[in-house]
Each structure stands twice: as structure tokens, then as C-alpha cells.
Model the fold of this input.
Amino acid sequence: MDTFSKSDPVVVLFVQSSGSSEWKEFGRTEVIDNTLNPDFVRKFVLDYYFEEKQNLRFDVYNVDSKSCSILKQDIVTMQLCANKLDKKDFFGKSDPFLVFYRSNEDGTFTICHKTEVVKNTLNPVWQPFTIPVRALCNGDYDRTVKIDVYDWDRDGSHDFIGEFATSYRELSRAQSQFTVYEVLNPRKKCKKKKYVNSGTVTLLSFSVESEFTFVDYIRGGTQLNFTVAIDFTASNGMPSQPTSLHYASPYQLSAYALALKAVGEIIQDYDSDKLFPAYGFGAKLPPDGKISHQFPLNNNVDNPSCAGIEGVLECYLQSLRTVQLYGPTNFAPVINQVAGAAAQVTDGSQYHVLLIITDGVISDMLQTKEAIVTASSLPMSIIIVGVGPAEFEAMEELDGDDVRVSSRGRYAERDIVQFVPFRDYVDDSGNQVLSMARLAKDVLAEIPEQLLSYMKTRDIKPRRADPQ
Done:
């Protein structure tokens, strides 16, 4: 910026609101004076949402930004007890509890955990509890962790008993032995020459458990394979008529195309080859008029993949011109088709997501339930988007949020189905999506947890990401 002076750099992070063009300031780093090589201390920590496109903007003044690594989400489990804490008065006992604080770069402290209150005792034993490593020390194993000991009062004016300090590294030594901490009250220490301590706290147990995130698996190489299945049954109406759910005017995509585009544009970023198998069901196919419930939209039985979401849309529109909408509405064949592919690779390197777009009038409910129960043990999720004005009780039942899907006495191993009614996201005319971002968010919201539930039940850990 200047010929003879160095910069005073600062980085400002802006976050764009979902479905909006507005940018809001999230935070800014400290200013580092007179340098062209700053080393910023302050960090930005944001919640990650798989189901949203999260746009961030870094405004950098006088210096280029540096990328930051993502910390693992480890969980620290601890159990502590205290011995002979100071009592509240001569005849009473304490109601003690502990408050954990993480030290910050600027010398302040941030609370990261509070134990339960153990009533009426001078020798409490607290229940085991967990603290994320990031919350406890932000990845710095030698960072100071301060623990305050209080005597609980009903009116909220808790009495300070004392404090002690430790670190993640020191706490971790309790994996092999007990660690005893002296609880000190600075005021009493200054006033009383013979003051020793206000009691002790013993760390009885400590363990570290890795709790992996969706991002850990994606970074480790897990591939999402996205498959589309579109309802071509006659209940949708003739595609040439404006009342049809498949009708596309020169100015507006059909409900089916809008739903496909909204969801597909988010999920395609997680599919490395951008090749999406796409099927139709419930139509009569040329030339003999045979009914099919899993025909490839590109007419290639050996390779039903389309290039990108735009390729799926193109093949979908082409199929509307060549097939005859018919029926019935059977989900099971296409679910079993994707389940067969998912069963080929179960080591966690592949995960399949099936998007079914339908008007909701299902004909093979029993077979579909059976297919879902079978698929629930595989690396697979099913998204159902219901378009049109129909009642969707059957789709809600398949969703399984309230009651797990079952068939012939067998229950689904995991909840793998997410249902979303498309009409909740369009205007009164049904022709304009009010928020594509909100639709995609709600449709994809359960995918990360469903993937994690599969990995956890199979004890599959993410692979180490290749160094960049």
C-alpha cells in the first residue's frame, strides 16, 4: 500500500445469509501493526451445515489471507471428586459444583462446562461428564484450563470456595493414575499465614473418545453417489397441460424440475465424478408399451448416468416426450436397485443417496417398507420430495421420525428416509419457489447424521485425508 511503510493488516469475515444477497459481518481478527507478515491469533469458528451453500467473504486489508485447518471434534470424558472442601459455616456442609474455563489468547476466560451440584456434603463425587476438546483448549494441549469451585446457594449468590488450574495434557495423565489438585482461595491465602488450601479435587478417570464428523469422512475420501428417481405415473397429469405437475412453461420449470435443481445443485458438490444415475418409474415405454418402474432416463440400461444435474434435467425432459405416463406408483424397484449398488461397497468409502420425486400416490407400500428395512443396514439414504396437492400420509409413515419403519416383524436398523412436501416452499400459485436454499436445506438436513449412524454402527473410522 505504501512505498516506505509496512501495513497494519486485519481480516474481516462476512457471512451471507441463506437465500439472501445480504452480507453480515461475523468477526474480525486483531490488527497487527507494521508488518507484511502477520500471524493472526484470533480465530473464526462457524457452524457447518451440509445442507446449505454457505458463502463466506474475507475482506483482507494490506495482506493476503491464510487458510486454517479444521480441528477434530474429540470428546473428553472426566470424573472428579473433592475431599474436605471448606464448609459454608461452622455447623453446615457445602453444596459444591465446579465451573471449567478455557483461557483465551487475550488473557480472558470462557466458560466451557459446569458440573451438577452435589448437595449437603464436604466430600462430593461428581458424575462423569464430557467436554469437546475444542471447547476445552481449542486444540492447544498446553493451554491453561481454570476450574473454580463454588458452594451453591438458592438465590444464585454462590460462595467461591477456591480454584485450581490444569491443562488438557496434564488432565490426560489421569488415564493411568489419579491426579490430585489443591483448591486455593487467593483471598484466604493472603490473609492467613497458616492457610494451606480449601480442600482438594481428585480426577478419578479421564478418557478421550473420537467423535467423527461428516466432514471428517468427506475429507477422508468417502464418496457420495447421488441417484434420481422421477415419478412418471398418470396421476401427475398430461405433461402438455398447464395443470400437470410435469408441465414446464417457457418461463418456469415444472415442480419436478425445480425440486431436482434445488436439491441436486447442493449435493452434486459432494459427488466427485458428477455422474448421476437417473431413473423414471410408472410409465409405458416405446416401442411395445411395456410398463417399467426403473427405466433409465437416458435410455442406456448399461450406463444410466447423466452428466451433472443439467444432464439429468435434459434426459428427464426428453423422456417426457417419449414415454406414456401410466402407473402404478411403485417405489420398491428403484430402492432395491440402489440398495444393490450400495451393497457392493460397505467399507465406508461409498455412500448412496436416492432422491425420489413423486406426487405421493404410492401403490406398493408393503414392498416399499420391506425395501427400506433391507436398505437400512446399507450405506444408503433416501430422500422423498412430494410434489402436488395430494395428502402425504404414506410418505410421512415412510419417513420414520416418529415410528421406525417395519416389515414382517423387522424394524429398520436406522432411520434412512427424509420426506419433504414441495408445496411448503412455493407461492400460492405453485409456480414459484419461495426459497430454493430453504428447500435444499430441509431436504438434505438428515443426510450427515444418517451417514454417521451407518459408520458408527459398523465402527468405520474416516480415512486420513491426503496431505494437500
Notes: The chain has eleven helices and 23 strands. Residues 308-322 form the longest helix (15 residues).
